[in-house]
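hey team, just a heads up i'm posting the complex here instead of the shared drive bc the drive is being weird again. everything in one block, sequence lines first with there labels, then the predicted structure for the whole assembly after. its two chains so it's a bit long, scroll down
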Amino acid sequence: MTASHAPSPAYRGRRAMPGPGPGAPTVVPRRLTAAQRAVARRVAYVMASFALAFVGWYLISHYVAGPFLIPPPLAVLKAFGPMSESGQLYSDIGMSLSRVAVGYTAGVSVGLLVGLLMGRIKSLHDLLDPMVQITRFLSPTAMIPIVVIWFGIGETAKYALVFWGTVSLVLINTIAGVLRTPQIRQNAALCLGASEAQIFRLIVLPSAVPFIVIGMRLALASAFVSIIPAELLAADSGLGYLLQQSSLLLQTDRIFVALVTICLVGFLTDQVFHWTTTILLRRYLAVPS
Amino acid sequence: MSLATLTPAKPPLDRAVRPAREEVYTIGNLLKVFGEDKPYVALKNVDLTIESGEFVCLLGASGCGKSTLLNLLAGFDKPSGGQLLYRGKPIAGPGKERVMFFQDANAALLPWQTVQQNVEFGLKLQGLPAGERRARAEECLTLVNLAEHRHKVPSEISGGMRQRLQIARALAVQPDVFLMDEPFAALDAITRRRMHEALLEVWEREKRTIVFVTHDIMEALTLADRIAVMSVGPGSRIAHVVEVDRPRPRVPGDPELGRIYAQLERLLHGPAGEEAGR
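-- predicted structure starts here --
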């Protein structure tokens, strides 16, 4: 894929680079620019990594564990066909994603709001921080039994568990972002006549953006990690439920389909998040401070 | 208050044409103590009067309390005792009539805004309409030769330009006093010289009062009307005030400047410490 259109971008890339000046001789070697070579190298390594994983998977399946315990890649692909055709897989993906979306949105909203307040109001921080530090050791999985008693096995319970898995990550990173806002920047704004509210809105909030984005990205991964056990133990739909059912029926190939699906959906969601924030918040993220 | 005047008492020409001077800062017997359990006396018995339109340098070794004094003048910090008046009134807090400049321009500026938006920032805080903001920002950027870079962000311009941007941003809110905390110390020698020229040009045109903190004798000699030499802490004070009645631009070959340089050198590094030259 890189080799097919390599010559033309290489040519353009060369000429776009800041050259030695108009008078200098323009020799255009047919080579990739350093940036293109870096991208090509990265793509190559990613491909190699996946290739290695597949080969390793195949070898272990074939020579070590046997095709029942670890179905080989091709068997997994075969199992994927009917699951895809019936639409069952996609409805499970949809269910899991919708639970992640609701729980994540709630977790980010609360984490962000409370984090901003805690970062700015010292007494509030000192009052609430011990609670945060203690309770963050309770993973969403640990909360499943009590949450099921509180909310039953309906959607609310799933939202609550994803919320639990996301809120503290956003909270802690938001607080860090607010506290790391350079004092000099705030003082400079004070000198220019900024009020307390203006400093918060125009200085602290933008300065905290890189931290908030990191917190949100970690929380997104955590949301996926949180939803699966919740669906394993108390659900009748979703990828976790698919895993659970396949396990009961000893369908290891279907389990592997579900596992690979979780990897792919999580990875794609993360990439979408990463590139959306990178593009939308470029100004705030490229901050040398 | 003792003024160690080094030049014969003849009124310099540029001084005579300036409008009547008013006291901008009145500092008397000022005390600043940090910490409660293990108090550290940073400033003690500081006396100084700064008049409008004056360029005053606070000169001293590192850790002598220059920045502490500047923070008090800005209102970031409160004095522990003594008198500190700005135009006859105690300082309640920071305000846009006393704008501070920082050495770390990356931290002081808004990296997510363009050069122009950075200059407009202070005007936006005041709620000025966009048209007026743009016009004044343009004016200030032109004054510091940054107009052509107005659409860049701070990370795309050089360190010297960033400091000029800080000057433009301050000029835009039309402050009474510039408080500058070693603003050019991190720049290379050539850029620094250009910054001195740019600052003096702005100062001569705008007639603001400038209080400039430095540990560099040459820098103080290049810029200041008066140089307040601070003694080494703890409990530092203004040991001497040296007048520099020489025309600008000041050239290193000026023998009078050489004399003052030697004098300042003695005051700063002399064996008798703060009492030298008395």
